[in-house]
Amino acid sequence: MYDKEKGLFEAFVAGKMSRRELLRATGKLGLSASAAGMLISSAQTKAMAADFDWMKYKGTKLKLLLNKHPYADAMIANIETFKSMTGIDVAWDIFPEDVYFDKVTAALSSGSGEYDAFMTGAYMTWTYGPAGWIDDLNEYIKDPAKTNPTYNWEDVLPGLRASTSWNGVPGGELGSADAKQWCTPWGYELNNISYNKVMFDKVGVQPPKNIDEMVATAAKLTKDLGGPYGIGVRGSRSWASIHPGFLSGYANFGEKDFSVTDGKLKAAMNSAGSKDFHKKWVQMIQESGPKDWANYTWYQVGTDLGAGASAMIFDADILGYFMNGGDNKEKGNLGYAPFAANPAAAAPTPNVWIWSLAMASAGKQKDATWYFLQWATSVEHDLFGARKMDFVNPVRASVWKDEEFRARIDKSYTGYLHQHDVSAPGAKIYFTAQPLFFDLTTLWSENLQKMVAKEIPVDEGLDKMAAEMDQKLVEAGLG
Amino acid sequence: MDHTSPLEKLIRAALLAIVIIFFMFPIAWIVLMSFQTNESILRIPPSLIFTPTIENYVALITGEMRTAAGSLKLDFMRNLWNSVLLSSASVAVSLLLGVPAAYAFARFKFRLGEDIAFTLLSFRFAPPLLVLLPLSLYFKTLGLTNTYIGLIWVYQLICLPLILWIVRGYFEDLSPDIEHAHRIAGYNWFQTFWKIAIPLALPGIAAAGLLAFIFAWNNFVFALVLASADKQPVTVGALAFVTASGIQYGQIAAAIIFSIIPTFVLAMFAQRYLVEGLSLGAVKG
C-alpha cells in the first residue's frame, strides 16, 4: 500500500498528475491531508536527491535576508522540505520593501558576513557585482560537483538568465559569453495591460493593440466612464517609473536608452523615434492619467485599479494579478492582455523586474549557501509555489507548461496565461547596464514629469536631457 | 468681571473650532480609518458612514494579516515592545549620565569643559548613516551587533546631547546661592545636588527626558542598520503594511494609533513640565 501512495506523489511532483487527480486518488486510499502534505514533501526530496549528496553540509546554519513578499512567503512555506533534505538549518530576517534595499546595502557595504544569501533585483547587482559584494554564481552552476544533475539551469527562461548576468563593462551586453551570473532568477514580472472588464464592456472598447490605440482608448474611457480615469502608469521621480510600461513600449519601437561606441556611452533618448514615443506617452497621461500622476508609484497604480478608480494599467502583470484578489473592490473583474506599442512589431517587448537570489561574498559557508540557492530556484520549489502559493510569475519554462498551474490561473485570471505566453520570449531587461543606472534613469523620470506638466516641450526637453546625461557620463569616465 | 460681549464670545468659539478641526482632522480621520476595511477606506467618494470593524486591531494583536496574496505574519506588537524598551532604556541611561554631567558643566569650570560639552553636542551634527556603517564594523568586533545593549548605547547619540544641553541651561538658570547655603549647612556637594539642584531642575529634566523619548521613538535608521528583524522599532515595523500585493490602509491607521499612545500619554502627563521647563531654561537672567 505504501509503495502505491509514494508512486502517486512522485507522479504529482514530476508534473504527470494534476492536484485534483492526486486528491481523488489519495482519497480512495484513505489518506489524510497532513499525511498527503508529508508525502508531497518527501516526493520532492526524492525527485531532487537522485545522484546527488544533499546531506553533504548537514548541520550547517544559514541566514537569509528577505523582503516581505509573496515569493518569500512561498519559500518559507516549503522550507521544511529543504531542511529535511539537507540537514541544513535556515534562519531569515524579513524587512519591509520600503527599507529593504537600505538594509541590504548597509549589510553588504559593511562587509558583514551575517547574511549568506539575500533577495535582490537584477539592477542592484550592477552596483553590488563590480563592488565585489556578491559572487559569480557561474562557478557553482557550471560545477557538476556542486550542482544537482536535475537542476536544469537551461529551463530558466532565457531572457531572465541573460538579464541577471553582466560582464561588468559599462554598456556590456547582458548575458554575453564573458558575463558573470550575479544572481539566480527566482520570480519575475513583465509589463502588459491589466484592465477592468466591466468598465471596458460598459464603454464598448477592447484592450488596445498599439500606442495610438492606447492613447485613444484611455481617452474614451476617461470621457465615457465619468469618474474613473483611463490609464494608470507610474510617474514619481524615480527610476522605477521608467522601467515598467514606459520602457516596455519604448523598446518595442527599437529605441534605446544609450548607444555604445568603442566602449563609450552616449544618451540616445533624443532620437526622432524616441521623441515621437515620448510625445504620445505624455499626451496619454495629460488626457487620461491620474490627477497627481507625478506621485504615482507601484502602490497607487495598483490600488486605483483594485478600487475601480482606473480602467486599466500598463504595468507589471503581477500587480494586476494581486489586484484581482484579496479585499479589492474590483476583485474578479480584471482581465489581462499583451501589449506591443509598435503596430509594426511582431510581439511585445516587456521590460522585466526579476526578484533573484544572490550570494554574499562575505559569507563563510558558500557551498552550503549554493545548496540553498539551487533548491530555492529548483523546478520542484518553483512548481510548489506556482501551484499552491502566489509564486507568480515562475521563472521556469517547465512550470509554465504545468497543467495544474495553468488551470488555476486560467480559472480566475482571464487572459493572464495568454499575455504571458505571447510576451515571455521577448521579456528581458532593455536598459543598458552601467554604473550610473539609478541616477540617470531618475533624471529621465524627472524630465518626463516636466514634459507632462508642460514646463518644457518634449523635443527641447529630450535634447537638453541627453546633453546633461552625456556630460555626466563624461564626468564619470563613461562617455 | 467679564467684559466680553456675546458676539466676541461667539467669534472666539468659532475661530477655536476652526483651529481645532484644522489640526485634529488628520488624527480623527486616522482614527476613523482604523475601524474600516480597506475596501471601505478606498470607496469613491470617501464617506463618513461605514460599518465599524475591529479586525485591524485584531490583526495587529494576533499577528496575522490577510492580504490579496494570502495571510502574512506580522510582528507589530514586538516592534511596539522594542520601541518602548529602546526608548525608555535609552532615556533612562541618558538621564543617569546626562543630568550629573549637565550639573558639572553648569556649576564647575574645568579644563576642556566646553570642548567636551561641544563634542557631545556634535554627535547630533553628523548624518546618522555616515556614523553607522563604520560603527557596524566595531559592533561586529565587540559582539554588539543585534543586541539591545548595543542599540541602547547607540541611542545615546540621540538622547544624551539633548538632555545634557537642555538640562545644563536649566541648571545655569538656577541661582547657586541656594546651593551654597545648603553647603554651608554642612552637606557635601552630592547631597546638595540630590536634595536641592535636582528638585529645582525637575521641570527641565522632565521636559528634556520627554523630548529625548520622542526623538528616540521616532528613530528609524539605527536599528535598521545594526539589528535583525526581531529588534526593529515601530517606525520600521509600520512599513510592513505596505506590501507588493497592496497597502493595508486600515492596519496602518491602527498601527499609528497604537504607536502614538505611549508618547501621547507621556506628553499629556508631562505637559505642564514641558512648557515650563523649556521656557524657563531658554532665558538667562
| Mean pLDDT over the residues of chain A | 91
Helix content of chain A: 40-55%
Name the CATH superfamily assignment of the largest domain in chain A.
Periplasmic binding protein-like II
**Class of the largest domain in chain B in CATH?**
Mainly Alpha
Radius of gyration of chain B: 24 Å
Counted by DSSP, the helix tally of chain B is 12
Total of domains of chain B: 2
3D shape of chain A: globular
Tally of DSSP β-strands of chain B: 4
Could you characterize what this model shows?
The complex is a heterodimer of chains A (479) and B (285). With 479 residues, chain A is an alpha/beta fold. Chain A has helices spanning 2-13, 19-28, 33-49, 70-86, 97-109, 122-128, 138-141, 158-163, 197-203, 211-225, 245-252, 272-288, 298-307, 317-323, 366-376, 379-388, 397-400, 403-412, 416-423, 437-452, 458-475, and strands at 61-67, 89-95, 117-121, 165-166, 180-181, 184-196, 229-232, 258-261, 264-267, 310-316, 334-337, 352-359. Chain A has 3 domains: 2-48, no CATH class; 54-189 and 353-424, D-Maltodextrin-Binding Protein, domain 2, CATH 3.40.190; 203-351 and 430-475, Periplasmic binding protein-like II (D-Maltodextrin-Binding Protein, domain 2). Chain A is 47% helix and 14% strand. In chain A, the strands form 3 sheets. In chain A, strands 1, 2, 3, 6, 7, 10, 11 and 12 form an 8-stranded mixed sheet that branches. The model of chain A has no long low-confidence stretch (mean pLDDT 91). Chain B folds into 2 domains: 6-73, no CATH class; 76-282, MetI-like (MetI-like fold), CATH 1.10.3720.10. Helix content of chain B is 73%, strand content 4%. Chain B contains 12 helices and 4 strands. In chain B, strand 3 and strand 4 (246-247) form a beta hairpin. In chain B, helix 1 crosses helix 12, helix 4 (76-107) packs antiparallel against helix 9 and helix 7 (148-173) runs parallel beside helix 12. The model of chain B has no long low-confidence stretch (mean pLDDT 87). Classes of the chains: A alpha/beta (479), B mainly alpha (285). Chain A binds chain B through residues 68-70, 73, 93-99, 102-103, 106, 109-112, 114, 227, 298-299, 302-303, 306-309, 318-319, 322-329, 389-390, and chain B through 37-39, 42-44, 66-70, 72, 129, 132-133, 136-137, 140, 145-146, 220-221, 224-225, 228-230, 232, 236, 239-240, 242-247.
